[in-house]
Design a protein that fits this description.
alpha+beta; FAD/NAD(P)-binding domain; 29 strands; Glutaredoxin; seven-stranded mixed sheet; single chain; about 475 residues; eight-stranded mixed sheet
C-alpha cells in the first residue's frame, strides 16, 4: 500500500509487521476494527530467527484459523548431534519428547522459520481484509484526548498524518514508539559475546540432526536444519571480536569451526548478529499508546520464548481493543493488558535467561501452557469451595471433549463463551457471546463459567447475577440486557 492511499482516520495504528504486529492486526480485523499496520522495511522480515512455536502459541493459531498452514510449513525439532575434531559424538534431545495429554492438542514445540510464520499471518490478514503499508515509518506522534496523531514517512520521504484512536508499538527491541512515549527498559546483558545468526544452504551435512560444535575454535557453532526448507540456521558465538555479516565471512566461520569447507555453503540467504539481552519495559501503556512484543520485552533466544510471548501479547490485547472500540467497554479495560501481560514477560525473561548457555532439556517449562492470570483484574473465582482437580478462574481452558467433538471448536472465533454446566443458563445478552448449557464437563464441575475470547477462564460462579456484572465489565453496561 502506498502512503498516499493510507486512510487518515483509523481505530488502531499498529507499528511493526513482525509476528506480534501481524497477529494483532489479524485479531482486530476479525473483530471489525479498522486497523492498519505500517512497516518501515520494504518487505516482511526475511530471516529464521524465532523458529520455535510453543504449544500455547499453536493453540492461538488454531483459534485464528492458521494452524493447518503452520503445521504444513514446519516440523518437529531433530535430536542434537555433537561434533569433536570432525567426528560425530553422542546424540541427545534438547527438546523433550512430547507425550499426548488430555486437553493439549499440540503437545510439542513446532519448528517454523520466522519468515514463514510471518508470511502465513500476512496471508491471513489479507484474507480478513487487512493490509500492511510497507516502506512506511513512524516519524512522530502526538497524543490528544480522543486520539493519537501519527506522522508517517514514506520511502520517498513524503509524509502523511493519520489519526487513530489507539496506537500499538510492535516495532521491536529498538522501538521508535517506546522512545516517542518516553518509556524506559530495565534489564541486563545476558552474555556480552556477540552471536552471528544466518540462514544458509549447505552441501554435505545431513538434515536428521541439529549439529553442534561446542568446542569450536573462536566459539560454539550450531547448524539446525530448518523444517519445511532446504536451509540450515547458523548460530555462531564469538568469544572474541565482532562478527562480519558478509556471505564470504559467514562461509569462512563455518569452514574454520567445522569439518565443512567454505565451498560447501552454497548460499547465504540472510545474516544478522545480536548480543543476548533481557529487558522489560517499565510500562506497557501511556495514554492511548500501548507496547507489545519485543517493544515491551527483549529475551535471550533460549527456550524459544520471545516470538511466542509477543504473539500472546497480541492475543490478550486484541479482544480488549475490540471490546472498547466496537462494544462500548470502558477504556479502563485496556489497563488489564499491562496488569496481566507484564508479569508474564518478567517470568519468561527469568526463564530464558536461566536457560541461556545451558544444555538443559526444554519441555513443560517452555510450553507456555501453564501461563494464566489467577490474580489478574479480570479474574473472578466466585466459588467458596471449588471441587478438587477442576479449573480455577484465570486458568487456560484446555481442549476437552465436548459433545462428540472438541471444546476448542466451540471457543474458536472472536467471541466469549458462557458454559452453564449442570444448571440453567441465565438470560443474558451481550455482543460476541456464545451461551451453551451442558451436562457434566470434565475439568469444570457444576456452575457458570465465562471463558474469555483468549481462552482463559475469567469467571467461575454459581450465582447468575455475577455473570451479568462480569459481562458488563467486558462490554459496557449499555450493551448488556438481562431477563
Amino acid at each position: 500500500m502506498e502512503l498516499n492511499n493510507v486512510k487518515s482516520d483509523l481505530d488502531v495504528l499498529v507499528v511493526g509487521a513482525g509476528g506480534t504486529g501481524l497477529m494483532l492486526a489479524c485479531d482486530l480485523a476479525r473483530r471489525g476494527v479498522r486497523a492498519l499496520v505500517v512497516e518501515q522495511q520494504e518487505t516482511l522480515f526475511p530471516g529464521s530467527r524465532g523458529k520455535g512455536l510453543q504449544p500455547r502459541t499453536q493453540e492461538v493459531f488454531d483459534d485464528l484459523g492458521v494452524i493447518d498452514a503452520v503445521r504444513a510449513a514446519g516440523g518437529r525439532y531433530p535430536r542434537m548431534l555433537s561434533w569433536r575434531n570432525g567426528t560425530p559424538q553422542e546424540e541427545w534431545d534438547l527438546i523433550k519428547s512430547a507425550t499426548e495429554r488430555p486437553g493439549v492438542p499440540y503437545p510439542a514445540a513446532w519448528m517454523v522459520p520466522q519468515w514463514r510464520t510471518q508470511e502465513i499471518l500476512f496471508a491471513r490478514l489479507r484474507e480478513l481484509g487487512g493490509t500492511v503499508a510497507f516502506g512506511t515509518a513512524l516519524h512522530a506522534l502526538t497524543q490528544r484526548p480522543d486520539a493519537v496523531e501519527a506522522v508517517l514517512t514514506g520511502a520517498d520521504g513524503g509524509t502523511r498524518t493519520v489519526r487513530a484512536r489507539y496506537l500499538v508499538g510492535a516495532d521491536g527491541g529498538r522501538s521508535a514508539v517506546r522512545r516517542a512515549i518516553g518509556v524506559a527498559m530495565t534489564g541486563e546483558t545476558v552474555d556480552p559475546r556477540p552471536v552471528l545468526v544466518a540462514d544458509v544452504r549447505i552441501d554435505g551435512l545431513d538434515r536428521d540432526n541439529w549439529h553442534v560444535w561446542p568446542e569450536a575454535p573462536g566459539g560454539m557453532l550450531l547448524l539446525c536444519p530448518l523444517a519445511g526448507t532446504d536451509e540450515f540456521q547458523l548460530s555462531a558465538r564469538f568469544d572474541e571480536g565482532e562478527p562480519d555479516l558478509s556471505p564470504d565471512a559467514v562461509r569462512a566461520v563455518i569452514a574454520e569451526r567445522t569439518q565443512l569447507t567454505a565451498e560447501a555453503v552454497r548460499e547465504v540467504r540472510w545474516s544478522s548478529d545480536f548480543r543476548p539481552r533481557a529487558a522489560l519495559a517499565d510500562r506497557y501503556r501511556v495514554g492511548r499508546v500501548l507496547l507489545a512484543g519485543d517493544a515491551a520485552h527483549v529475551h535471550s533466544p533460549a527456550g524459544g520464548q520471545g516470538l511466542n510471548t509477543g504473539v500472546q501479547d497480541a492475543y490478550n490485547l486484541g479482544w480488549k481493543l475490540g471490546r472498547v472500540l466496537r462494544h462500548g467497554a470502558p477504556d479502563t479495560l485496556l489497563d488489564s493488558y499491562e496488569a496481566e501481560r507484564r508479569p508474564v514477560a518478567a517470568a519468561v525473561l527469568g526463564l530464558s535467561t536461566a536457560l541461556y548457555g545451558m544444555a538443559t532439556q526444554r519441555g513443560d517449562q517452555t510450553s507456555q501452557l501453564g501461563i494464566g492470570y489467577p490474580t489478574g483484574p479480570l479474574t473472578v473465582e466466585d466459588r467458596a469451595e471449588p471441587p478438587a482437580d477442576t479449573l480455577r478462574a484465570g486458568d487456560r481452558v484446555p481442549d476437552l471433549p465436548y459433545r462428540g467433538g472438541r471444546l476448542f471448536d466451540l471457543l474458536r472465533g472472536p467471541h466469549a463463551t458462557l458454559l452453564a454446566i449442570d444448571c440453567p443458563a441465565p438470560a443474558v445478552e451481550a455482543p460476541e457471546l456464545v451461551v451453551r448449557e451442558t451436562a457434566g464437563l470434565a475439568g469444570f464441575g457444576p456452575g457458570l463459567f465465562l471463558i474469555r475470547p483468549d481462552g482463559y477462564l475469567g469467571l467461575a460462579t454459581r450465582n447468575p447475577a455475577r455473570v451479568a456484572a462480569y459481562l458488563g465489565q467486558l462490554s459496557g453496561a449499555s450493551a448488556l440486557t438481562t431477563g
